[in-house]
Each structure stands twice: as structure tokens, then as C-alpha cells.
Amino acid sequence: MPRYAMVIDQSRCIGCMACVVSCKRENDVPPEHYRTRVLEMVQGSFPDLTTEMRSELCNHCDNAPCVNICPTGASHHEEDGTVQIDRDKCVGCKACITSCPYNARHINEEHGYADKCSFCQQRLAEGKKPACVATCVGGSRIFGDLDDPQSEISIILRKNSHRVLNKAIGTGPNVYYINQYPKRA
Amino acid sequence: MAFSRRNFLKYAAMSAGGAVLADTPFISAEARAQAEGGNVKYVPTSCEMCFWKCGAVAKVVDGKVVKLEGNPYHPQSRGKLCARGQAGIGQLYDEDRLKHPMILDGPRGEGKYRKASWDEALTLVAKKMQAIANKYGPESLAMMSHGSPGDYFTNVLKAMGSRNIAFPSFAQCKGIRDVAWELTFGHKPGTSCERVDLENSRVIVLFGTHLGENMHNSQNQEFAEAVGRGAKIICVDPRYSTAASKSSFWLPIKPGTDTALLLTWINIVISEGLYDKEYVEKYTVGFDEVKEAVKEYTPEWAAQETELPMSQIVESVRELCRYAPNVVVHPGRHYSWYGNDTQRARAVAILNALLGTWGRKGGMWLPAKAKFASFNDGAPAYPPASKPSLIKGDFPFAGGEGVTQVLRDATITGNPYPIKAWLVAGTNLMKSLPDQRLTRKAIDSLEFFVAIDLFPTETVMLADVILPECTYLERHDGLFKISTREAGVAIRQPAVEPMYDTKPAWWIGSELCKKLGLDEYAAKDNWEGRMRRQAKAWGIDYDQLAKHTGYVTIPDSEKPYITEDNQPVFGTFSEKIELYSDELEGEGFDPVPKYEPIEHPGKDMFRLIYGRSPVHTFSRTVNTQWLWELEKENEVWLNKKEADRLGIKNGQYVVLENQDGVRCNKVKTKVTERIRHDCVYMIHGFGHNAPRLKRANQSGADDQQLITKYIEDPITGGTGMRVNFVKIIKEA
Amino acid sequence: MELSITGTNALTYPVMHVWDWRVAIYLFLGGLSGGLMTMSAINYLRPGRKGPLQSVCCWQIPVLAPILLTIGLIFLGLDLERKLHGYLFYTTFKPLSPMSWGAWIVLIIFPVMILYALAALPDEVKGGMKKGFIKNMADAMAPHLAFLAKLNIVFGVLLSIYTGILLSTFVARPLWNTAILPLLFLASGMSTGAAVMIIVAKSKEVKLFFTKLDIWLILGELLILALMFYGHYTGDAAHQAAIMPFFDSSHGHFPYFLSIVVVGIALPLAIVLKFLEVTGKHTEEVTGFGLFLMNSSAILVLIGGAIVRFALVYAGQLSGYGYTMM
Ligand SMILES: Nc1nc2c(c(=O)[nH]1)N[C@H]1C(S)=C(S)[C@@H](COP(=O)(O)OP(=O)(O)OC[C@H]3O[C@@H](n4cnc5c(=O)[nH]c(N)nc54)[C@H](O)[C@@H]3O)O[C@H]1N2
Ligand SMILES: Nc1nc2c(c(=O)[nH]1)N[C@H]1C(S)=C(S)[C@@H](COP(=O)(O)OP(=O)(O)OC[C@H]3O[C@@H](n4cnc5c(=O)[nH]c(N)nc54)[C@H](O)[C@@H]3O)O[C@H]1N2
Ligand code: SF4
Ligand code: SF4
Ligand code: SF4
Ligand code: SF4
Ligand code: SF4
Ligand SMILES: [Mo]
Predict the structure, then answer these.
(1) Is B185 in the pocket of ligand 1 (CB under 6 A)?
(2) How far apart are CA B290 and CA B591, in angstroms?
(3) Interface predicted TM-score (ipTM) of this complex, two decimals
(4) What pTM was estimated for this model as a whole?
(5) How far is B463 from chain A (nearest CA, A)?
């Protein structure tokens, strides 16, 4: 059984937002709602500026508060390590949304269930990469199987220093960030 | 060729449901659909959300397009689509689309129209055009266009005997650059795309050219690849752009002084002996003249002129030379900046030549080698022009795409001869041409104005007859010749049937020919038939294109780098790279670029500069749901210190007033450290004045509204549009 | 820093506002009914209570408790995005989910409350009833009143402590994520319970007793509140930021600032009033003024308790690890 994860190479992110739109179309996310976002953080003062680009989505945490809090079992772990929502079981109590340290969830206002990034489960089933990864113009989003030591992401994580968001909270995220800022002369 | 082994294995693995994941939805559109079964259909086609024309694959379920993917074979898309390409479905299902032909019912500009049948509308258009041609001569019919619809109406006008056809992609865009490079290398720096080998570059220099915001798909893929590999970026931009944020050297240059920097760099490259001596020796002429001419441009002087630290000027160019020739000074694309832009482009071309980047890995690849049999489906030659066309104005080097504003001005003055009718297809002239007042004046002075478009834009809603084209996802176009490192052919075909009462441009043009009694110029049967015949003539398997890959490579067309037996061919008179241009000299222009200072803004005035949003294409996508959501209005970027001085808060709405007292819509300020103190920046394409575009109407401000002044480049006619100064008015 | 985010949801950006007044009311009424269970039970069981078992004490309280809890639950139900799916709470039990616990606890608590309420019905009330199921049940339960009262003390405490536990488990919301929050809700639940006792009870002796008791409860509540802020203040950046709104009178945070001010006045004032009453001269009957003192202090306590719930529910959602802390 694969253990899916994503690596995000921040230095390659050019803020094109193809991921954001692609995700909405693939997963039919209603207007003004999003499963993924891109942050642009600029620091310093003219002309000495640095930028961090960071695309964010559900971290499919190993120790997921959203799963723990869910009273009906709608939010659950799958064998492939991903965190999914069983829409039929969701009462829309929103506890999972409040419980996510990453603000990764929202309510699908059309149907009332909680929604979030699913790692494009439906595409994985068809042998496709997630929509955002497939169309990532910068090649910043890299997806694969941690259990396969030869997978692209396994290799990248072996070779590059990486981090997860809010490690200290202990949710055990499965979205890893690598970043080499351009060196400034 | 098309079925690469790697992809095939991927596909095998996919259908076996293995853990190997493919980037792309298909190997063969048909095979993929079969693999998925059900009522899914995959249609390979080409994107038209901008002019990069990426290969796209439409996923169609129950006759609805549900997802667009990048075509993995198409070198412009490589399996990916940008945000705009992904949102193409939003253009298709935009409820504000033009839905049926409309005929003006009341005075022009009041937007009162009545619904009409195609037959009625086309009959009227034909009648009017014929009448005007008879009265004033065919040359009094002009056409302005951009993008794929152009060809079909070019055909109509030429058949009628007019050659007054112009595209904003010349004088408002890349024409200037193309001319400069043709003068230097005898080639444009690219046709389908700039021929820059970014993915292999060690150093990339960008003057403007805001990659990351300027979102041409494959080029941005290569740019990110380069950044990821650790290539050094030297970004020359008064604004801390996305590209600047990836750069090792950001040179926040004083706007309008780029040529000073370029000539100084050339001087350093030569005086420090950093140029590629062999290459220069072998392939160029006029080195000594250049050497002489640039002596005066010292780093000290440049530092003053450009307001850049001298150390930065020197270090950056040395860094560039260290990795030459595997480097590139990007030729740029939008070039109509200051009215002396050909010489800036020449300087860029000369610098590339000195570094020997042309035909070198990481530099600029050589044009793909492919011959396409000429094909016009047996249509007869066009009748000669009734009168010489005006499209080149009095600009000796203006190109075949024509100088748009010349036609506009002639329409107003009636000199040298009257222009009485416009046919406008796929360009929003009110937004694309500088000085809207003149554009409006010209339109008001027309006897007849027909627009072919998708949306009720401010320009379209001034037309007498509006002909609604169907979107690119509902029509055939092309075949498209694609010239990247390799030559190839791509297809556009409908993913779904046209919605409403809309028609493809080819059909509209063809029907128009018939109504004008020019049947021999009309489509023989339908466009697909024509495309099949064209494929045959080119020796390409049409079904391979249409059913499977959407793109095919012309074998052995890829010869990117100079080798013993792959020598570059320069289409100049000397058949060498002309560092010194006799041609320019012949017309009385500087044969080697000279620096001409430009006027700078006075106290409390800011230079208005503009650029792109990665999620919008000019004015055409603002109304597209998923793109509008991401960016509903543009902001005006204002330097933090200046804002504090003027007491303007971040997010505060202001109004800009230019040197001619013209004001724009209220616009949000982005108070930022990311821009120089002497200019303000805006994204082009917003501030629609088009009530029928429910989302886009009046959202944000229109830079074009404030660009009432423009300086024509004497060599090409390009309209320098960054010469307007604005002051900021707080009330709003 | 210049931050721009593309692709945010209104529910969580710029600040999270997932739960609103409905949840706050639920937490308040939940805590209150817990308080009522415990307080009324204490009243029965306390030694030295004068007068016959039923008549003296206010039977209305045990009846009121389940009613208030029901109202609270109705508000909670109103907050569900898919109300019709509510039954799903009872198709499974999730040991790790305080939400799930809450759902089941309620199922156990209701019978305990109702049987207790029946048992506590005094004869004059029962007399007024015609024969029937309720009357029979009431008669049947009456002998077990003492036992039921003991149960109610336990479950009352459970209930009001639970309302705090629920929030305290949210690691993502620093303001809530402290083990002291359940104690705070317990104290405030109990004190509001006592307050209602004071208002409803007829007997002066009972009123006085709970007035005294409430002084300690309020002192406890204030102490815990102070400790909570201290704990956050000495915590990490996120916890420090979490209490900011309460100490920032600027436009955006003013309501929170105000809430602290009001609570800071209401509760101490209540204590003073009670103190006056307790130490004051006492005739057999309650003087009009005495009644005023006791009731107004009780109302102050109720207001304070409600504000604590509302302020914490809203401010808790402002707290978090933000978009830039990650
Ligand atoms: N998303 C998206 N991408 C597009 C388009 C689109 O509509 N949307 N349009 C496409 C088309 S047709 C074109 S032509 C291109 C245009 O895109 P480019 O060719 O990149 O346009 P430029 O004007 O070169 O670049 C704009 C940048 O120049 C900077 N600039 C302004 N004044 C000066 C100056 O005096 N000196 C220097 N060095 N920099 C300056 C601005 O700050 C801005 O960052 O974009 C293409 N790509
Ligand atoms: N101030 C200012 N002026 C500029 C620029 C700038 O940056 N600032 N940029 C310049 C540049 S680089 C360029 S290339 C030009 C671009 O100028 P334009 O090509 O005019 O750009 P748009 O504003 O996108 O207008 C496109 C029009 O075509 C319509 N359209 C879109 N798709 C189709 C289609 O499939 N069929 C038909 N029939 N119509 C279609 C749209 O509805 C819209 O009305 O503008 C130039 N002018
Ligand atoms: S990121 Fe949030 S939603 Fe996703 S698994 Fe972790 S806690 Fe749950
Ligand atoms: S909203 Fe749905 S998924 Fe989230 S916790 Fe409640 S039931 Fe579970
Ligand atoms: S993996 Fe799928 S669902 Fe998750 S962000 Fe990417 S596209 Fe959206
Ligand atoms: S698609 Fe990739 S490069 Fe573009 S914004 Fe998303 S993550 Fe960044
Ligand atoms: S660059 Fe984007 S919008 Fe332009 S053709 Fe490609 S996908 Fe379409
Ligand atoms: Mo352009």
C-alpha cells in the first residue's frame, strides 16, 4: 500500500495560481471556496527584499486533530495515509474546521459537508497525479509514495533539508517544504 | 515521435492501476477515454486564453467540458496549463457571452441592439461593406484583429482588395523587438515563442520581461526549472517582480534608462575583453564601430543615469560573462515602452551577439528546420490592392502586421484617403490602443463598424453589427504551425458543440465571402475538411492529431545548437550578425544604438508603468468566474515612503490623474516596498466600461485610460506607452 | 511583512469564525443546567438544612435544568450545517472525540435529570396533577430522591466541566487549549447555578446559604480566570497572541476588551453585594432591600457567566497558528 505525500519546492513556485484553479475545476469546489492556496510573503525594505512563496493544502496529518475530533467518523484516515471525508457521514458540526491548525478546511456551502484537499483521491485511483501537481507550471509541487524509496519524493527528501509546517504542534504533516532562496550578491 | 516510450510505460502502469502516476490524463486521447470507460471523452485541442496556444486536452462528460489538462506532447504546454488555461471552461460557460448576432438599434455607444438572425446580420454586413467599397474604394475598409479569428477576415478584406489590416501585436507589443532582431540577426527572436533556451541557461537577464507574471506557459516552466537548478537571474526592473524575487541581482533601474545600462554593459564586455572573440570574429560585422561608439558609456555615468549602484552594474555583467555563452539576455516581448525602443532592442541583440548566445546551449536555440508545403485549398490569388495600404505609416521598418494607430489616425483625418469601415475581430481596441479618446473619435467617424467577438466589451458595444464567435472549445481553427526547438503541428477542434446562436470565425468569414459574391475564397466544405486536406499537403496524419495526440512533431526539425555541420544562417544583407546596421544608417537612424535620455516626472508626479497578472489576459479574462475570483480588481502599487509622505494608507482607494488632466476609476493602493519612488504600477486590462460584463464592469482601473500620451518609435511606429505621469488624488 | 494569499475561504480568513453565538449559548446553558443539578442536589443533601425534605426547597430547579439543557442543545443543533444528519452522532461512538462523548453523555444525563425532577416534585404540586404516568413515576421516584440527588451532583459537575473540556482539546486554538478551561467553566457553571437558586428559592435560609456559597464560587472563578490569562501570557507566541484581544482596546478587539472590563466589574461587585447581605442584620423574613441585593448580585453573576462563554468562544477562534506563524 502506498503512503502518499507531497513535497513543495518553494524556490520553484512562481505564483502562477494554476494549482488553485486546477484544483477547483477538478474537484468542483464552489465559487469563492478553495482547497489550496498560495502565500507570497515579502520581507525587508527597498531595495533589500526577500520573498517566500508557499503553497498550502491539507497536510494529511498522521496525527490529525480533524480526525480525532470528528464525532461521526466522517473524517478518517485511509490505508494510503491520506485523510478523507466521508460526505454521507458528515453532520456539518464544523469541529474539524476549528480543529485544523492549518486552516485547511471549509464548509461546502452547496451541500453543507466539510471539505478539504483530498490529494485528488479520484485521480489517484485512475493513476493520475493530483490536479495541482499535474499542472504545476513551476514544477514546485511534487507528489508520490513515501514507502517507495525510489519515488521522486523519497529521493528528494533524502537529498534535501526539508521541513513541515508547525511541526511543534505534533500533527505529523505529510506535506514537506524544501526551499533554497536565490543567493543574493 | 508522438508516442514516446516513457509515456507509454506510464500509461501501461496507469491502466494497470500501479502506483506509478502520470502527470497527464492520456497517452492517446481515445485510448485514455476507453481506459476510463463510461461517457468520458478526451478531446485534444489548443488553448486560446492567450496567444501562447498551448496544447490542451478537454475532458468532456455528458457533453459538458468538466476539466482541461495540458497536452503532454505539445512543447508549449508539456502537460500543463496555466491558471487561465485551466479556467478556459469559465469562458465557455460565461453567462455574459454574446449569444446571437445583434444589430445596432439607436445611436452608436448607447448600447441598444436588436437580436438578429445570422442571415440578416451577414447580409447587412455584406451590403454595407460592398456599398462603402463601391463609394470610396475597397481600401476604405480596414480590419484590426488579434489572435486566431484574424486569418478568416484578412481573407475577406484581401479578397475585396483592401490591405489595410493591422494587429496590435506589432506596434503595441513585440513588433519593435522583432524588427530590431531582424536588423541584427536577420531573424525574429522567435515566432511561436521566444527562442530562449532557459532550461539550460546558467544566467538569465531580464529587462522587464516579468516572467512569473508574464505567464507564457512553457517559458515559465523553463524559467522555474532554471531557478530550481540554481541558474543566476539578473532582473532589471523598477519593481520587485516575481522574477526579481528569484534573482541573484535585482537592479531596480530608473524607468526609461535601460539603454544606458545596456550600452555600458556592452562597453564593459568589450573593454574588459569578456566577449566571445572567436564567435564575434566568425559571425559578426561592425565590431570596431560598436567598440568605438560605446566608449563614452562608463559605469560612473551609467550609475548616475540609471540610479543603480556602480558596483552592481559592474558585478552583474561580469557574472553574466563568466558563464557565457550558456547565458541569455532575454529579447523581451512587450516592447512599446518609451518611443525609442528599437534601439533598446538592438542593444539587447548586440549584447547577445557579443556573448555568443545565438545557437548556444542555454542561450538562444536556432530556428527549427522544417518546410511546409504552401497550402491555400485552391483559392485563387487575391486581387491587387486597390490602393497601397497605409499600415506602415511613414515608419521605414514597420512590419507586415501593421501599425494599428496609423489606421486609426487615417480614419480620423481621412488622409491620404478615407477609411470608412472597420472590421474588428478579437481585439479590444479601446483597451489595447493608447489614447482612448482618439480610438473613440475614429469609431465615431466610421460609416460602418462590425465586431466579431465573444463578449460585449466596451469596443464591441460601439459596433453597428456584432457577430458572436463561439469559444475555442467549440470550434475548429488552424492547423497551427508550432515552432519551438522543433517544428510541429497542433490542432484546434471543438470539445463541444457551439452554445447559443454562435459560430466559428471561419464560418462567419466564409459566409461573408459568399454574401459578397467571393465564393472562391469561401471554405470549400467545412473547416475540418480543409484541415484534413492541409494535413495531407503537409504529410501529417490528421487522425493522429485529432484522435490521439493533438500535436505532432516534424521529424528531424530540431537542430538547436551550432555545430560543425549545423551552422547558423543569418538573413541579413551581410549574412552575418550586423552589430553595426547599414540598413538603419541608410534610413538616417543610428547604426549603433545611442542613449537618448527621456523626460522624467516632476514633483509629486509618478511615471505610470504597467504589466500582467499571472491569472488574467489583458482585458479578456476579467469576467471569467474562476479568474475574476482570484483577482477582481487591480491595485496601484505605490512606494511605501512616498505613501507615508502623501499620507496614503495601504488598501485606500484613490484616483489617478495624468498630465492631461484625465482621471481613471477609483483604484485600491498597494503600499509597498516593492517599487521605486518615482513610478506607480498597475496591471493592464481592468476597469471595464462594459455594463453587460457583470463581473468585470467597473472593477479596478484601466491603465489605458491614463495613457493619453504616447511616443511613436520613429523606426517601427511602436507606441511608447510608459511616458505618462500621474498624480494621486486621495478623495475616492 | 507584505503578505498576500490567493485562495482563502471566508470561514477561516482573515480570521476564523466557524462557531458563533449559538454555540456560546449552548455552552452557557449547558454549564448552567449542570450547575442547577449540582446546586439543587447539594441543597437537599446538605446537613443542617432546616424544614421538611421537599416543601422548603424549590422543586422548580430540577425541572428547570433539563429544560435549559434542551434549549441549549436546540441552539447547538441550529449550528449544524446538515441538521437532518444529526442522528449520525448516535450511529457511532468515537472515544477520541469530545464531540462524540458530549453526544452520548447527554443521553445518560437526561434520564438522571428527569427522574430527579420527578422525585423532587412536592405533594402540593403532585396533588394538582390528575392520575397518570407522570404522577405514578413521581411517586415511584420520591423514595430515591436522596440517591438521585447524589447522582445529580456527579453528573452536574460532569456536564459543566464537559463544556470546557470540549474546547480545551483544540490544539489548533491556543486560547482554548489549556487544561484550566474546564475548571473555569465548572466554576462559572456552578456559580451561575447558585445564582439561579438564589433567585428562585423561596426560603430565606436557602437564599442565604447559596449567597455564601456563591461568594466562594465566584472567588474561585476569578482566580481561575486570572490563572488562565497568566498561563497564556507565560506561554509561547501563539498563546500570548491568543489573549491579546482582551488587552487591546483598538477598534477590532474592543468587544473583547469590553468583556473583560464588564466581567472584572460584575463579579467583584456581586461579591461585595453578597458580602453586605451575608454580614448584614437579619430578620426572619427577607427585607425588600435584602431581596434586591441578593437578586441583583445573582443577575450580575449570570451576566458574567454568559460573557465569559461568549468572549471565549469568539476570541478562541481568533487565536491560532495563523498564516504567517507556520
Ligand atoms: N498572465 C499573462 N501573461 C501574459 C500576457 C497576459 O495578458 N497575461 N500577455 C502576453 C503578451 S501578449 C505579452 S506582449 C507579454 C508582456 O509581458 P512582458 O514582455 O514581460 O512585458 P514587459 O513590459 O517587458 O514587462 C513588464 C515589467 O516591466 C517593468 N518595467 C516597467 N517599466 C520599465 C522600465 O523602464 N525598465 C525596465 N527594465 N522594466 C520596466 C514592469 O515593472 C513590469 O514588471 O506578456 C505575455 N504574457
Ligand atoms: N495600456 C496598455 N495597452 C496595451 C498593453 C498593456 O500592457 N497596457 N499590452 C499590449 C499588448 S502586449 C498586446 S498583445 C495587446 C493585446 O490587446 P488585445 O488582443 O486587444 O487584448 P484583449 O484586451 O485581451 O482583447 C481581446 C479581445 O478579443 C476577444 N476574444 C477573446 N477570445 C476570442 C476568440 O476566440 N474569438 C474572438 N472573435 N474574440 C476573442 C476578447 O473578448 C477581447 O475583446 O494590448 C496592447 N496594449
Ligand atoms: S491539515 Fe488540517 S485538515 Fe488536513 S489532516 Fe491536518 S488537521 Fe486535518
Ligand atoms: S463537520 Fe463533518 S467531518 Fe467535520 S467534524 Fe463534523 S462531522 Fe466530522
Ligand atoms: S491535491 Fe487535489 S485536492 Fe489537493 S490541492 Fe491539489 S488539486 Fe486540490
Ligand atoms: S502551480 Fe505551482 S508554481 Fe504555480 S502557484 Fe501553484 S505551486 Fe506555485
Ligand atoms: S499560456 Fe496559459 S492561457 Fe496561454 S495558451 Fe497556454 S495555457 Fe492557455
Ligand atoms: Mo503582446
Answers:
(1) no
(2) 9
(3) 0.95
(4) 0.95
(5) 33
